[in-house]
Structures are given as structure tokens and as C-alpha cells.
Amino acid sequence: MIRALTGFSTRNPWKVIALWAVLGIAMTFLNGALVFRVTGAQPGDFLPAGYDSAAALKVAEERFGVKPDANTVTVLVGRSDGAPLTGADEQHVKAAAEKLGQRRVAMPPPKNDGPAFLLIDHSQTPRVAPAMTAPDRSFQLLSVQLTGNSMDPGLLDVFRAFRADARAEFAEAGLRSGFTGGIASVTDTTDAGETRSKVVGGLTMGLILLLNVLVFRSVLAALLPLLAITFIGGVAGGAVSGAAMLTGIKLDGSTPSLIGVVLLGIGIDYFLFLLFRYREQLRAQPERDARAVAAEVSGRVGTAITSAALTIVAAFATLGIASFGQFRVLGPAIAVSVLVMLLGSLTLMPAMLAMAGRKMFWPSRALKRAPRAGSAGRLGDLVARRPVALVLASVALLGVLATGLAGIAMDYGQGGSGEKTAATETAAEIGRALPADAWEPTTVYVTARDGGALTTGRLDGLSRALGAVKGVGRVGPTTLNEDHRAARIDLFLTVDPQTQPARDLVAGPVRGAVRAHSPEGTEAHVGGTAAVFVDIADAVDEDLRIVFPVAAALIALILVVLLRSLLAPVILMISVGLGFAATLGASALVFQHLLDKPGVAFTLPLVLFLFVVALGTDYNILISDRIREEMERPGPARAAVARAVRSTAPAITTAGLVLAGSFGSLAVAPDPGSRQVGFATAVGILLSASVLSLVLVPALAALLGRGTWWPVRPGRHKHRTQTPQAPQAPQPAPEPHHVPFP
To answer: Which of 364, 473, 590, 592 lies at 20 to 30 Å from 411 by C-alpha?
Structure first.
């Protein structure tokens, strides 16, 4: 199957390239039209229905008409001179709010050139309502509601238009205005990071181009991988968005960008594997037709790429059993994307090799001369001569980094971007005068189960009990819905709802009071930011206990099948386990201890485990299979290890730098969780590529010799029939022509 695909592609390169180009462009447009229809921005959207806060969200939607895609913005209005508001000022605020609540805001024309008929029109009339006035009358708050996906640029443009109208309306009366919360914070963060994102994206592409130019000294070898990834990434994005639309699944807002980073990294890796082997074979067979060489190389390396890609697919597919929806949709989405990348690696990339031929490496003269051993050869010799010292040094380094796991904590708060924006300044001003969650209350929803109607008097006992809870600053009035079968009670906590103290307060005393004092015949649920993240914490803890062992067992099983050994998979799993512990520990040291964050992002351990284990295993498979092949040849096992390291080190090093650079671009993303995932994954990939794959695993193989592959030892019969030789330092040997990995 693999050779059939690669053979067809190398025989018909222009047809394959044209097909991918058309599909890439078409699916890119499709993805742009669908991506914001199939993504959800609220963490509570991904909780299973059985959790308390999820039940509260359902009551809010069904009984109180709260829209699931509603975005609430808090507007602060005060006097421009800083004086307290007067009665006349409050009348101006009321009149302006009424005008704004009756005026339809049209969505401005999009800045991109995509087809207009594919865009969502977010034009709407916002809901504007008074909220509260500061005790010192320094400002008044309004609550504004816009509906739509807060990640959609079209909705952000609608908010910008509304904000401009509101500022002008209040300015006419000599009043100043500020906006915070929800889409206001998203807009400010997006605007602040727009230039930075473009710069980082350009630097990432520049890094990839620079590495390819330095390694291959070629224009085409630097540009064609990026062109291939562009086409394949477009198809993958459209496939994921299309599948989500057809199945009704909501993706997390960070999923599309994460998929883009994954595809860029592994796609360049796979192309590099092909290029290194293609150059090697062209150098070894100068008289042979380049298209025939491309077919042979693609078929052989295609097996390696398929094994690597299926390992990633299997690892992320295990997220499908998670209870937390953000994980449950992330895994299959990445799995589908990697499968598309695998198809592109077996068709488009071989077609580009066949199309370019020897011109792929122009103007370099590398095809006309034999490669020097260089640093890769010296590293191979060192691993073969000093395996014990290198094993101890590697384990010591990983152990030091893993010490960061001591006292590690999970941060379930959204925490904002940490950047100073107009929204954060407005929030700070509100926070100095009002309770911490004055504009983001914790809400108790009560529904009647006995068929009777609810009254405020029937719920007075519950309100009094909640008001007596330490940490609840104020209890709002009881609000009944139209049929009096449901009620809501807002609680204003004295702590920030996005902090751990708020989550502890809600999980313990608040929910305890609700259980103890809810009237007979009623059912009560606690909602709000703090309640949602309490339940997310429980869901994530449960998923970690299930997904970790299942993913590890599945990857181990794949390794047994691929490597045809029982001992080698154990070595690889132990090494990647050490790499995971070291990476997570390093992340805790940086973010929790050095930067004084509440903890690491709650999604980090699971996402990091899958990325580091799955992607890091690719490099381990690469070096392990090459070691096995070299051990099939006669001679000492340590000499085989030295040859394997020398042959694979350039490919692994270059691929690791590219993949780490791709993920590293997330380290400057506006979202704190994405920043942590980017930093941690980049560190994990670098550890996997340099320490694990090129030092620890080869050193262990040098120590264990052919026993590494127990119960079948490669080359054992050949080795025994060789004439005994005096021990000597391993020397680099010419690379064999027929190997499945670059």
C-alpha cells in the first residue's frame, strides 16, 4: 500500500502536485468559513452534563433564556474630571444606554479577501442593562451582551464598532467609558498581540528556511517543504472543520492554532527524513535516474513515516475516552490532521522529490562528495566508548529537571494574558471599588421538582444561609423566571472568581450550604466561573488517571510490533517517561516557581504527555531501528551504535530544532495556557531529540549490545562466525544503501 502510493506519486508528480494544490486552496477557504462555526470559547461548554456547573448552565439556558454563545461585556462610565457622578450624570448614562440598546450594530466588511457568502454576519442589536454603581459614586457599570463566538474576527469587529459608538455617546455628555470582561478582553489582547504574532510567525518560517539552507545549501530544499505543508495544512484544517460541522462537535478555540503548529512541525520533520535519505542515495548512485531514486527512497522512508505518524495518531486517539470535552475533541482532531499529513507525506512529498530531481539540492555540490563524519561521528564514537558515563549524565540531567514536580500545582483559572491593556486597567479600577466578582457573580439556580411554583419567601432560608458563608460578600435578590418554576440567586464573593480561594469556597462552603438549605421539592445547582473550574478540575483529574495508562500501553504495544522486541520498547518507554517528568518539572520550575504563577495550566500534563511521548517516540524509533539495522552487520555492537548515531544525528537534530521552533512560537501567544504548552513542548522535543534519542537510548544499546533486541538478537549468527579481533575504538563506516530511515 505504501509503495503503491509513493510509486504512483513519483510516476505522476505533476498530477499529484496539482491535485494537492487545488485541494489545499479549496479546503483553506472551507476551513476559514467553518472554523468559527465549530469552535466554542466557553470552558463550561466542554463539561459532561452530570457535573453541577453544567447542570446550572442548562437551567440558565432553558429557564432564563441565557444564550450559550452570549458574551457579556462590563462597561464602566464615569466623569471625565474624576468627580463623583451626579443625578444628571446618571440620567445621561441611562439615556445613552437606552439608545445603544436600540441601535443595530452592523458588522464592518472583513479585512480578508475570502468569499463573502461563506462569512457569518454578526450584525446585531446588543442587550444593554444597568448593573450597579460604585459605593463612592465614582462610576456606574452597564452590562452589555453580544452573541457569537468570541474568537471570530467578525464578532470582534462588531464589538469594536459598538465600543466606538458607546465612547462617542458618553463623550457627548462629558463622560468617560471603559470596557472589560469577555469579548472586550479578547479584543484588547488580540489587538495587542497582532504585530507580535506576525513577527513570531515570520521568525518561525525564517528559522525553518535558515536551517534547511544551512543543512542542504539549496533553495528548493528550503522552500518546497514549506509549500508542501501549506497545501497539506489547508486540507487538514478543512477536513477537521468539516468533520466537526457534520458531526455537530464543538472544538476548543485553541485547537485550530495547535493543529497548525503540529502539522508544521511534523510535516517539516517528515520532509527532512525524505530529503536526507534522498541526498544520500543520489550521492551513492550518481548514474541512476533521479525519479527512480525518489520512488525507492519514498517507499523505504514512507514505512518509517507511517510508523511515526500512526504512533502519534494512536496516542491522541486515546483522548477520545476522556470525559472533559476539550480533551475529547482535541485528540481526534489532531489524529485526523496527522492522518492527512501522512497521506501528504506519501504522495505530495514524493511527487516533489521526483519533480525536482537532482535540482532539489542546487546549487550545493554535496552530491559530488562523500560526507565527513563531523560532530555526528564524534558523538557516535563517544557514545560507544563511554556509555556508562553518558547514561549517568543523562539520567542526572533529567532528574534535576524533574525536581520541579515537587509541589507542582494545577492552575484552573483563565488568568488573562498577563498583559496590561485597557480591559485590564478597567477591571482593576472596578476591583478597587467593588467586590472581586461584582461583574462576574457566582449564581445558584433553583428549580421546582414537585410541580409547585417557587416564591421568594420559599427561598429566603437558602439566601440567608448563603449570606452567612464566610467569603460571600453580598447575596443578590432572588429572581424568578416567567413561570415561577425556576429561580436564580447571585452571590458576590470577596475573592477573585478565577483564583484558587474562590474555587475552594465554591466547592466547599457554598455548595454545602446549597445542599443543606435548599427547600424540599427543589433542585439547586451552582454556576459561574469558579464553579465551572471546580468541576473541570475533577474531570481532568479523572481523565489523567485513565488516559495516561491507556496511552502508554497503546504506545508500548505499537513499539513492540514495530521493533519486534520486548526489551527495546521497555527501554524507550522508560526514556520517554524520564523525558516527560523532566519536561513537566522544568515547566513547573519556570512558571510556578520562577514566574510565580499559581501553577501550571491544567491542560498541560495531559497534552504534554501525549506530545512528548508520541513525538519524542518518533525520534527514538528512528535511532532504534537504525541501531538494529547496523547490528545486523557483522562486528562489535558498539561499533554498530556509533555508525547508527553518525547516520541519524543530522536528521534528528535538524528535525528536533524545527519541531521545537514550531512549538516555541506558541510561547509568545496571548493565551497563558498556549504559552505554557509552547514552552514546555519545545523543551520536551529538544530533550527527546538531543538527550534521549542521541545519547541515552544509544548508550543503553551500547551497554546491552544485541541483547537490546531480546528475544531476537540481530546479527547474532553473523557476529559469532566472525574471527575474533582485538578491541578497538569504533570507527564510522560507510552508510548502507538499504535502510528504512534517513
So the answer is: 473
